[in-house]
């Protein structure tokens, strides 16, 4: 290979927008090259909307280390991903959230939030999720031919977020429209300009303080009620705004992205589809985790080095940005047997799609349950699912959204 | 095998409950994880080791 790692475009929009559907939409050969030859390299971005530069870390084991070592790799010194501005970055005018806090501030917020997302609390949501799934599949079976992303992937994560957070049904349409706007801020088919993104985030933050006040008056069994009950020491007004924006951006887009990539792979792999159909009454966790691995809904997150140190032979200085390229770590042969194989029965699966450290995805149990319930209903009520056109990806190098996944259902 | 948990670090992520429900639990109002059995039998070693490895804040330690 004549190009160096920084010239391969592993963080370029075009790479993901024009991805090869036979390799999960990903530049897997390039990922192999950087992991083998330049496992920590300096990427410069040269775009006013993006950060200036970052050290890109691509091996699975190194990503675990960066994500888990919050003394050395801080989340509270600015920036979340390759974008220069994010709504939860207080150093760039945003509001603080869990993902941009460390130490005691992080723990105070996370403990309140986590209680609404424990395995036991999430298990209680199953009945309600199944009702949503039944309605979604009813409508899909009426249509027979549709875009899977919109007609199956969209509704469940939105309603789930509404339930968990405590958004009243009457407010959900406007709430979801704001969330949709910042799902893909740089794809002009979805969001005409970045101004719309900022406006949607502003609206969402104002709404979150109104929702907090409403829950102070009339508490319910939801996360916002837990937040306000815990008081200002646990979470300030600014942190409430930041965390609602964080939850909204984490919940909706990523889950439908995972389901859409998973559906696409199952249609490409009839043996895997058959394997899952044989288990459609109770889809095993291995299947969900494999879908989450190959989807890698967010390609990366960044941290800031808190001290000078050496990583994979590179001298990292305090203040340098270190970028964890999750999507490359999820196909690392050092960590996975046959990483290019889509294997729903995969046992050893140390994927980093949810992260592995203190900032690990808060909604991972919720998202897993949503996917399990929705795929169970879909498979039980169909005889066959076939592609009805080519997959199209969202134009974005951070969020691996699917723009169009045309499918045809045959009812059971 | 002896289990110790650093409760000052626990943020109730819940990974240990998924990995080893026989040993760890988080009730609705718990601020930190509950250790149901701090000296479980060898048959649970694999599960408990997974719980320790998965813990995002590395709060779980295993003794002999």
Describe the structure.
The complex is a heterodimer of chains A (412) and B (64). By secondary structure, chain A is α+β, with helices and mostly antiparallel strands. Chain A has a single domain, classed as Cytochrome P450 (Cytochrome p450, Orthogonal Bundle), CATH 1.10.630.10. Chain A is 46% helix and 11% strand. Chain A is built from 16 helices and twelve strands. Chain A has helices at 13-17, 28-37, 60-68, 103-114, 119-123, 126-143, 148-153, 155-165, 172-181, 194-217, 223-230, 237-268, 270-277, 285-295, 326-329, 364-380; strands at 40-44, 53-57, 73-74, 145-147, 301-305, 309-311, 314-316, 321-324, 382-387, 392-393, 402-404, 406-411. In chain A, the strands form four sheets. In chain A, strands 1-2-8-5-3 form a five-stranded mixed beta sheet, covered by helices on one side. Chain A has a three-stranded antiparallel beta sheet with strand order 4-12-9. Chain B has a two-stranded antiparallel sheet. Chain B has a two-stranded antiparallel ribbon with strand order 2-3. Chain B is globular. Chain B has a single domain (3-62), classed as 2-Layer Sandwich (Alpha-Beta Plaits), CATH 3.30.70. In chain B, 23% of the residues lie in helices and 16% in strands. Chain B has 64 residues and is of the alpha+beta class. Chain B contains two helices and four strands. Chain B has helices spanning 15-19, 45-54, and strands spanning 3-5, 24-25, 34-35, 60-62. The model of chain B has no long low-confidence stretch (mean pLDDT 93). Classes of the chains: A alpha+beta (412), B alpha+beta (64). Chain A binds chain B through residues 68, 106-107, 110-111, 114-115, 117-121, 355-360, 365, and chain B through 9, 11-15, 17-18, 25-31, 54, 56-58.
